[in-house]
Amino acid sequence: MLAFLMTVKISRRLAFNNGSLPIVIGIFSFIVPFFGGLSFRNLYTNNIDPLYLPAKKALAERTVIITTQSAILLPTITYFLSELKILNSELGRLVLSSSLISDILSVTAGTLAHIAGTYKNKSPMTAYRDFIGVVVLILIVFCILRPAIDWILERIPIGGANDQA
């Protein structure tokens, strides 16, 4: 969601002209908390009441929480910089680029985890169908919607509105 909202507000070319540093920051800002959380996931599993939540489901729930918490650091900082109206500064562009990379990585990890859970708990055929659906969605966004939006933006005069209905 952050990737969509921020690319609407800021030009893609402006956000991604910082070299490889945002990619490294974006990857590490997701990977380090993710693997740090996974290393502590199995602590205190013997204190879970089996009548409340089975241990297997508790571990799966903890994994979902770890993934979600790993993904919110940079988008939160980006939101604060947006509210302070310093998103166009050098720091703002670096955080924006890193945040977009981290957001894309977290969505990818969540999607792969969902497909793996579907494969394991439901059926392989359902997991394959979900994977094909994700691939088709990505292809539609990049091959159809993105060129269509670029075409529409080229037709709008600078500083004016699109009067065509």
From TrEMBL:
It comes from the Eukaryota. Residues 4-156 form the Cation/H+ exchanger transmembrane domain. Pfam families: Na_H_Exchanger. It is found in: Membrane. It is a multi-pass membrane protein. One of its GO terms (biological process) is potassium ion transport. The chain crosses the membrane at residues 21-44, 64-82, 94-115, 127-145. Its main location: membrane. One of its GO terms (cellular component) is membrane. Belongs to the monovalent cation:proton antiporter 2 (CPA2) transporter (TC 2.A.37) family. CHX (TC 2.A.37.4) subfamily. This is Cation/H(+) antiporter 12. The lineage of its organism: Eukaryota, Viridiplantae, Streptophyta, Embryophyta, Tracheophyta.
